Each structure stands twice: as C-alpha cells, then as structure tokens.
TrEMBL record:
SUPFAM superfamilies: ALDH-like. It is an enzyme of class 1 (oxidoreductase). Its EC number is 1.2.1.3. It comes from the Bacteria. This is aldehyde dehydrogenase (NAD(+)). Belongs to the aldehyde dehydrogenase family.
Amino acid sequence: MLSSVIGGARIPVGPRTYRSTDPSRTAEVVAEVSLAGAADLAGACRVAREAQDAWRDVPPPVRGQVVAAIGRLVEANKAALARVVTREVGKPYAEALGEVQEVADTCAFFLGEGRRLYGQTVPSEMPDKQLFTFRDPVGVVAVVTAGNFPVAVPSWYIVPALLCGNAVVWKPAEYAAACADAFYELFAHAGVPDGVLNVVYADGTETFRGLEQALDAGLVDKVGFTGSTEVGSRIGELCGRHLQTPCLELGGKNPMVVTEDADLPLAVEGALFSGFGTAGQRCTSLGTAIVHESLHAEFVRLLDEAARAAPVGDPSGDVLFGPLINERFADGFEKVLGWIGPGHTTHGSSGTGRITAANPRAGFAGDPEAGLFYHPVIVDGVGPGDELFRAETFGPVIGVTAYRALDEAIALANAPGYGLSASIYTTDPAKVFRFRRRISAGMVSVNNSTSGAEAHLPFGGNGRSGNGGRQSGMWVLDQFTRWQSMNWDHSGRLQKAQMDVLEIEPDLGFRL
C-alpha cells in the first residue's frame, strides 16, 4: 500500500484507496494507493514552506550536485524504472527506456545550470552607482502531472524547480503511483532533504480543493500542471485569483502537413510513429494529416499498409504500441470512435474499437482479452465541421484530409485552436519558413514527426495547448525564479534617476 510522502515520512493510510492495475493485464494489481485529502495536500505545502528556507540557502552549485546524483541514480536504475513504466501505464519497453533517458538528460542539463544562474551587472546613468540583477527561487511549487509520461514530464518541472532553490509538492496521477514512488525514491536517495520534495496521491477533486486551500493560505507560489485543457483552464482561473501565473502544459490537436514535393515514405513513417506511438496518448500525438491532393490517395494507401503491418500488443515486446493506460482512457476513446460518421472512411486494421477474439487483429502479440488493446484507425475525409477534426482524441486514431494550396493547409492546421506541436514534410525551404511564420504551434518539426522533445529545447504550446509557459532548457528557469533588481549608490549623496543625470549638449544643427 503506497501512501503520500510528506516531510520525508509516509502519512497514515486512509479509508479511500485506488488500485493501479497493469493495463495489458487488467486483472493484475501493480499498486494499492491510499488517497489523501485536500487538507493533506495543503499540509504538504506548509511542510514545503518550512523546508524551503534552508534549501534556498544551499549554494546553487551544490544543488546542482544533488541534481547530478539524481541523474546518476536514474541511469543506474534505468532498466528497472522502465519496467515499472511499462507495467503500470502500458508503454512499450523501448519507449519506456527512452522516457527514463529523458529524465537523465534533464538532470545532465540542469546540473550545470547550478553554476549558471546568472544575474547581470548593469551600468547606471549616475556616477558612483552600481546596478545588479539576481534570480531568486519563487518558493513553493505545486506540480500536478498526468500519467502518460509518468517520469519524464515530472522531471521537467521538479528538476529545475529544485535546482533553483524551490521546495516542491508533487501530485502525480494516481494510476501511475508505482512510477511516482520509484521516482521519489531516486530523488530521496540522491540527497534531496526531507520536506523539499513531497508526494501526495489524491484524486482530481481533492487536489483542486487542496490547491485552493494552499493558495488561500499563501503556501504556494507557483503551480505547474500537465493535463487536459479543461482542467488547465480551471487551474488558471484559480491561480489568477491570487495574481499568479501557472505553468500550463495542456492538450494538443497536432497537424502534419504533407506538401506535393514531400518524401512520401518518410512522411508515412512519421505519421505512423506520431499517431500511434504510446497508443496515441501523447499531448504531441498526430491529430490530423493534411495532405496535398496530388498525394492524398497514395498517402492513405501507404499509411494503411504500414498500420496493418505494425506489431501491436504486449508492451514488454517489440510493438508499435500497447494498451490504453486505464479504463478511463478506454472509455474516452470509445466516445471518440463514436465520432466516426458516414462521410468518413476507415483504414489501418481489420477492425475498429477494442481488440478481442470477436474483433481480432492479425499478428497481435499477446492475449488481447487480458488488456485494454485497441485497433489503430485511420479516418479519411475529416474536416473542420467534424468533432474528430476539432477535438483532442488521446488514442490510436489519425484523421486525414486533403488540401490544394499551402495557405489552405495552414488554415486547416490552425483551425482547432490548439498550438502545441506541428509538422511539415517538404523539400522546399520556402514552404518551411512560410509554414513556420504562420502556424500557431509552439514547436515545429520539419520532415520529422509531431512527437519528440529534447531536454535543452523549450517545450510548450499556445492557445488551447497552454498559456505560453515553456519547459526544458534554460527557458524553464523563468518559471521557477523571480528577477530581483538592486541599485547600490556609493556616492554619499542622493542621486535621483532621470533628474540628476549628466547632460552633454550636442550641436544638432551641424551640417557638412
């Protein structure tokens, strides 16, 4: 039975529990989780507030060494942590290894930032006066994450937040509690002090109430949230009441534009990976392929062939994708499949919906009846009037539509109102930069899939995909620090800016 960790100690097991099961074998329980209440989350924020003072005073290069130790422990436990990810959220083992590597890469980047939390000395307009700027930690950071990337995404928040001198209260997805527990243990054994990182397992309702209580009590200085656009909007409203700007990483409806001069087999390969990798359960998963009319039919044919040939099934093996994460996501995907209408044509598999003995898929790896496995589906003929075109689907489905001119393709790509990731396949540089200028996405890929992030590149979206905050790289430091300016006048007299400034008179009437 897992329970929340506050101040370095497990809190007592409460009456409300959650069973985290293996989505590829739903009868197998991975972890029993004791769910905390709103008061527990607010209490964790109070403990974090008390611990943050001492952590802030640890020199940043020393905090960087703690981050380095986290990275070394993650690498030493890479295979074990990846197995937990595969078992609890159904991510194929090869992908799970890549996710764990992302944690190590994040640590590798930020260990050096402990020596580069630079301020600046700035020249003054007054003599005998010096100006300085400093980065200070914001204080207590509350982080709420989804479970589709149960260790990589939390590291994007927690590693830089700790490096900058903040204390953290983390609410992971309850359906990824075993992953969260393993993640916490690595941080604790790397030397993160008790109370500086706290883990609270709670459901959505209690989490929101706990955040509200903590914000009202002045215990939280920054909220980071990864999840749905709808919940992110509510958190944004809550934080706005306290004049705070949260870091929101929300959903996506990520377009891929395939131009008439594209390398078509490469585009199909990119669509297959970004649409069906992680069973389409990434915020950066491909939503709609927008294909030039001259290539449309051939693109659909090749993608259909590739999807039918791709191995699907037991995530411990070499498969393109495994199960959906849990029953809640399966139910949501069933609703999405209901959006397929009479004007659409489907491709990609021998059926649609859940893979069962009665609805089989050729070459399936494992026992389809044991888990939450779904057919990959390609839906041709979607358009702006379709819910399938407008809404995030979060499952193994790709929409396809045709276009004639690039301006039309860009308009279609922007139409759903999200702005996370977008991709263009073309051999024409002019098309690349025209697309980049006009696409609303925070991240653009050229001849690459909509999925994929690196630890030193800013990650984040616009519109319905976020509020402009960026994670990863040096850009995330602005989420977890505040700028402080200081002026030091050593002239021995009061000098008034903009008033007591030396003026040198030019002769502006001079002409050659």
